[in-house]
């Protein structure tokens, strides 16, 4: 990980704390955090108290007054120093990426409740942008007969840039049509020209304000009633899966995957992937580890989905529905936030 910007308004600015935690004093520059104000939190960690010299520390909370600004200092820190700062800050704080008065984006330790509220707001806003993008894809007829999947993907990328400015994507951009719709995400089938009676899907992961949106939608060209039925079943299976998640507080990834498979079979389809979703959050700070089964809604994940991550933040999930008709050679795809 490259060096990071860290904004401090409290005891991390003290030379003694920096020497104790980083082994050096950090050069910094003044800046401010708009829209926040300071409160006080009581620290009980004896090591933190020993380094800082006090059990009372300031904590930044979101303010209702737009004119409020928390003054502080921006430091450039290494990945190891950022981890050391994480260890220093108590459970009352959560590290969050925020825009400073200067316009720079920096890590800031703020109160946990504010951080979670901001994470939810940004995840939901990112998804809303992605939904607007795919709605416009339908209105403009980007998924159409006679163009290649790769070209359609590039046109969706260009549309995202037109609507939202230059937009990064956190995973490969996918458009698949016809028999290629049988292939799950990890596969890379050859580019195919979309045909007049195809079913096709798009799977994009645009990043908005450093938060991932992961959205999949299916489009049916022509009048094939079975393809239209599959496309109609996708959001229904998603809704049923979301309801099952809501009804079972201790649900594991393996249990939800099994239920999604049952819902697919109930409607006459086969589930088309080895998992049915994954964790989602900030980018690139929560890239999904392909070797970590606990990051997926999948067989073998016996960990409750309602949990916190290593930084104490609530886990949020994307639910993926990939239904296929292997006999007729097509499938469809639908995904979005599960728990928000």
UniProtKB/TrEMBL annotation:
PANTHER family: AMINOPEPTIDASE, CYTOPLASMIC PEPTIDASE PEPQ-RELATED. Residues 124-305 form the Peptidase M24 domain. Gene3D superfamilies: Creatinase/methionine aminopeptidase superfamily, Gamma-glutamyl cyclotransferase-like. This is M24 family metallopeptidase. Residues 6-111 form the Gamma-glutamylcyclotransferase AIG2-like domain. It comes from the Bacteria.
């Amino acid at each position: 990980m490259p060096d990071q910007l860290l904004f401090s308004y409290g005891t991390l600015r003290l030379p003694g704390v920096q020497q104790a935690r980083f082994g050096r004093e950090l050069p910094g520059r003044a800046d401010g955090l708009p829209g926040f104000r300071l409160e006080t939190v009581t620290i009980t960690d004896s090591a933190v108290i020993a380094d800082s010299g006090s059990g009372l520390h300031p904590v930044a909370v979101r303010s209702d007054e737009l004119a409020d600004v928390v003054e502080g200092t921006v430091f450039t820190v290494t990945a190891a120093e950022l981890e050391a700062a994480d260890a220093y800050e108590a459970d009352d704080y959560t590290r969050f990426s925020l825009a400073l008065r200067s316009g720079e984006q920096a890590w800031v330790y703020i109160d946990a409740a504010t951080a979670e509220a901001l994470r939810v707001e940004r995840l939901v806003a990112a998804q809303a942008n992605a939904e607007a993008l795919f709605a416009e894809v339908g209105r403009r007829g980007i998924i159409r007969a006679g163009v290649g999947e790769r070209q359609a993907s590039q046109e969706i990328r260009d549309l995202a840039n037109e609507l939202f400015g230059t937009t990064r994507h956190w995973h490969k951009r996918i458009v698949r049509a016809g028999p290629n719709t049988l292939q799950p995400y990890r596969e890379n089938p050859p580019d195919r020209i979309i045909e007049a009676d195809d079913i096709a899907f798009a799977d994009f992961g645009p990043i908005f304000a450093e938060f991932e949106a992961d959205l999949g939608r299916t489009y049916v060209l022509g009048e094939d009633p079975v393809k239209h039925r599959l496309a109609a079943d996708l959001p229904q299976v998603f809704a049923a899966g979301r309801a099952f998640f809501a009804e079972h507080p201790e649900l594991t990834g393996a249990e939800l995957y099994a239920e999604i498979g049952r819902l697919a079979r109930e409607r006459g389809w086969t589930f088309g992937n080895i998992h049915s979703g994954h964790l989602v959050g900030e980018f690139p700070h929560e890239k999904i580890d392909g070797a970590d089964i606990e990051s997926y809604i999948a067989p073998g994940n016996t960990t409750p989905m309602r949990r916190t991550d290593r930084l104490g933040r609530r886990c949020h999930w994307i639910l993926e529905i990939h239904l296929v008709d292997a006999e007729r050679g097509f499938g469809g795809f639908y995904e979005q936030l599960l728990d928000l």
